[in-house]
Structures are given as structure tokens and as C-alpha cells.
Amino acid sequence: MLTVKLKPRHRLFCFSVNGHVKMLRLVFGLVASVLSIADGALIYRKLLFNPSGPYQKSAVHDKLVL
Predict the structure, then answer these.
(1) 0.70 exceeded by the pTM?
(2) What is the dihedral of CA 53, 55, 56, 61, to 10 degrees?
(3) Nearest-angstrom CA–CA distance, 37 and 43
(4) Is the distance from CB of 14 to CB of 23 less than 8 angstroms?
């Protein structure tokens, strides 16, 4: 008599521990890429509108004392 071996049912990808780790890695990668693009855009904007830097460089003795 022949016995039929059934394949074990696999869990869906999102229900396994390995799937959760991979999805979290994907989400963190997407968030990191969006934040780095936003950071680059903000730095570009800052350098475009204020190329000399954020501070006025002047000596301490040049300040007017009242």
C-alpha cells in the first residue's frame, strides 16, 4: 500500500518571525532614506540662501557698549 506524504503547510511570510524582521528592516530603510533626502534638501536650502554661514563673524571689541 502506498502512503501519500502531504507537504507541510508553510506559514505566510508576514506571520513568521523572519518575515517580521525583514519587514521592520524594510520600514526602517525607507524611513532612513526619506530622512536623509529631507536632510540633504534642508542643507542645500540653507547653503543656497545663506552661503556665508549662520553667524556674523565679528570681534568682541567691535561691539558697542552702552
Answers:
(1) no
(2) -140
(3) 10
(4) yes
Number of C-beta neighbours around residue 22 at 10 A: 13
Q: For residues 39 and 35, what is the distance between their CA atoms, to the nearest angstrom?
A: 6
Tens digits of pLDDT across the chain (66 residues):
677 777 777 777 777 888 889 999 999 999 999 999 999 999 999 888 877 666 666 666 666 666
Residue 56 is classified by DSSP as -
Q: Are 43 and 35 in contact (CB under 8 A)?
A: no
**Cα–Cα–Cα angle for 23, 28, 30, rounded to 5 degrees:** 95
Task: Give the position of cell 507537504.
Answer: 7
* Coil, strand or helix at 53: coil
pLDDT at residue 15, as a whole number: 76
